[in-house]
Please model this.
Amino acid sequence: MTTLTSRLLCSALCALVFTSTASAQMFAKPDREPKVSLRFDRYYDHAGITDAVQRLQKAFPKFLTLQSLGKSVEGRDLWIVIVNNPDTGAHTTKAAFWADANIHGNEIQGAEVNLYLLWFLMENYDALPMVKDLVDRRAFYIVPTMNPDGRDNFLKTGGPSRSGMKPNDNDGDGRLSEDTSDDLNGDGEIHQMRKHVPGQGTHVISPVDPRLMVVTPAGTRGDYIMLGSEGRDLDGDGRRGEDPKGGYDMNRDFPSDWQPAHIQGGANRYPFSWPETRAVGDWLKAHPNIAAVQSWHNSGGMILRGPGSEYYKRTGNYTNRDNATYEYLGTRGALILPYYRYMTVWRDLYTVYGGTLDWAHDALGAVAFTNELWSSSQLYSEAWKPDGPVPQEMQQLFFNDKLGMGAWWKNWTAFTHPELGDIEIGGFSKWFGRTTPPFMLQELAHRNTMFALFHADEMPLLEFGDLKVTKLSGNTWHVTAEIKNTKAIPSRIEAAEIYNSGRPDTFTLSGATVQAGGLTTGPQGETFTPQATTPNRIELRSGIAGRSRASVTWIVTGTGSITLEYASVKGGIHKRTVELR
Amino acid sequence: MYRYSLRACALLAVCIIAVTAGAPTMRAQASTDQYLNYEGLTSALRALVAAHGARATLTSLTKTDAGRDVWLLTVANKQGTDPQTRPALLIVANLEANHLIGGSAAIATAEQLLSGYAANADIKKLLDEYTIYIVPRANPDGAELVSTMRGYEIAHKPIKGEEAKGGLNVRELGADLNGDSLITLMRVPDVTGTMMADPAEPRLMREANRARAERGRYMVMVEGIDPANVSAFVSMGTDGVNLNRNFQHEYLYFQPHVGPHMVSEVESRALVDFVYDRTNIAAVLTFSAYDNLRTAPPAQRQPATGVQGNPPNVPTNLLPQDRAYFEFVSQKFNEMTNLRGTGAENEAGSFAQFVYYQMGLPSFTTPVWTLPAPATGGAGGPGGAAPTNRDARWLAHFDTAKTTGFVNWTPAKHPTLGDVEVGGFVPNARVNPPVGDVAALAKSHADFATWLGQQLPKVEVTDTTVEAKGDGVFQVTTTVVNDKYFPTQMALGARMRFNRPITVRLMPAAGMTVLSGNIQQQTPRIDGMGGRQTYTWLVQATAGTTTRIEVHAERAGGLLTSPVTLR
Model:
């Protein structure tokens, strides 16, 4: 029962919440506490990510919706956070920016970028008009991690796998994942094993640093043999760790330019074959308003775009028009992201069949990038020279010692192996190499978020331009209407036009009898090309190009007012009523 | 060009569907209503299982979008080894919605096997030693659409969410102008028309060749109301899916009726999963519009137009070693069925192509019925010689067989175009034979399936020996033999990531050390017709130690064991 007191209390609380939201502006005024305390100098496991997105959603319930796309192989929720201002329309009516991360289990920091992106948009909504503008006029679909099983596997045991965690028969013995790697010493990581065999080995200790092992020259014997990753022969077949869970690549599971596993390693039976990719694919297919797709991977410092293969559509490139859009965004992105290079997957990295990029481009008609987050050159000084003061082979250990205080190296430690006897375990940590060191994580998250928001900001944004109504005679009128795209990405990319994916843009006049209609042409826009059929509804198969405009002319007979409606899958629906006078 | 004009000029006729759905029974033969609808199919399968419970099981592969079951009939003697470990032949039919004859042949095969078990020694051996999986109707939603829209020629199933339009894009429907309950073609006299009647066969329309002083006099389009709706758009993947275009190999990206993407449909997914999961399936026989039995695939084929550029390591032809098997089986098919005719291509994105090119399994496919070969001596053409044009040959066949496969051009009134003529091939008349021909065709295909089932690879473990070398050292030897026709793996199959080689393991035993030879040894392929492979291990153990050899022969017998005592 509602009493006066409780109503008063409620309004007081609501006011408090409102005030607190209004004061969230931690980026512009860094002396303030953020409303939601999240840390960007550590990594969250799936439970931590769940807690973070739930706290964000509770703090910003008006703008954030939290849903589960489905469950992973091991039953973890695949979270998606929808960012939208409902006051300006449903999220499905706006151009949407999609960001996923961590499809590869061991490529973890993308989840932190996505958390940062959400947190940044919310905390700065009131303080920064550019942020407010993005949140008010765009929608964001943010999936912090697409592979929570692989993520937790990496965090808990440090298995190096990029795969999901479905048990498989990798060794062909008819049993599923019965010989995985094994954290023998229980330190939460999989290091290397070596055995001391004086005078009978293949390696010796390096004269440069006793931690390093070097291969002995041909014809001589060393004192150690290297025994690979920590593990045992759990299935008694004489091999160690040859049947781990997974062994597949979910970024080879998308249905454009797809190839089977004997051509493309990591592919499965057919596209969208894993619960994680299927859930994501179903969502993407159901949201044609997605105009931009961003995937976070690691590492190497790359802004990657498609196509994935040199055989793609027999040309190895997107069309000239689409290519220009990528060039615009990619070259500017490389300025926002020092140490990152803007690259085409097959030409500059390696061939990928069935990756996210090509499908997002071909079938969703979205402009898609994949960032390889983190480059070790960000850690190593540019002053490093091969002939500098420290021997070349010491490069990694030097920074481990001088920047990490030894955090990233495990010294060789004696261990009694059940099969191999007395051995030693040691080597570089899983935290070294692919993963950003904690002290640099927030910068990485911020810069990549800024690249994402730049991309999001360049999604098509349509508005009415010039509108002219001229009387021809009696009740017959000449109507010319213009639609402008104020952003860089066209309202329909050329791939969508060619592959017929999604509806073309349409410009419809209603409220009068349309005698003829078509795209305005001529140097002064003085004539038009009549569309053969349905002159009231003009199709713009190419949409409206970036920072460009399109004009349609109708000859109509009628009185009173007419309604013009421009409908674009990516650019939204825009209506205007005009008087015929 | 002709095909294009068909697609582009098709018509808006949603209102007409209601009329044709309740249409009166079609005249003539070759109608689809003489084939089983879903309910009839389900009853027929249930009846088979009720009568032959000891050798038949009916399960559902999956539920379609409309809630129908894709039935799987497992035919095998349930006594003896587990049918799921026996080498199996999978028969799949009715992938194309209107290919109803395929389903009839599949059911007839099941009937023949089940009723012939007692009297026929070949069939008894087949059902005792092998398993036959039969999916008589892979596309029940599509087949049902065909049976409710009898006047149309529809190879695709409705797409989810588009049911209100019969699952098809409005452009592709037609309307019945001349009241014969069939959607054929209409020709409209028009000075801008580019089509003319073919002088060699005036019932057929073709493009006029202006360079040969020919003049077009007609526009030809699908019989219907609104030829103006040509520019209506069909978004990729919303136009209904031909399931036999929905598979991974040479998939026709972004083309009509292929689905929004490869393996997008529950039916196609269920089939692919089934072939992967049932690792005893050793060969597949498909009854579909595509043929590789009447005519074996050529050594060099031209991939279908529209196939996306593939990397050079994607095979587009049968590997030569494998082709020899396809040729032999084709020859046997022709001998056994005496069915000659023109093989149909239609292979891009088909289930049969997927099975060979991506699973590496022997994969055979036949339309069951197709354009019959012209009688020797030549009949039908004006000059006495058989016509070379395929449509003309169809007409000649219908004339000879005296079946109504073609509606002669007759005047009709069109609401906006005025006087038109309506005519053309009866929908589905070139897909399904007259119902009177079904029994004989089905029998010859059932005979072939019976033969094919017995050719599947099957290995045996022989000659397991232990030779004491002294001082607790023993040499263990075993041989795996395949006495059947097919090898345990096609040459292409040996490349496939998910196919397991023949895997032989000397199982670990307490105190036994393997001195030479890996515990687990693998062979990609063992030929048929007596092909064999021998495996050897040198071990050290206490005399009297017992263990066993395990042979995993996926698709060739499953798990076999042979005991070993070291003495």
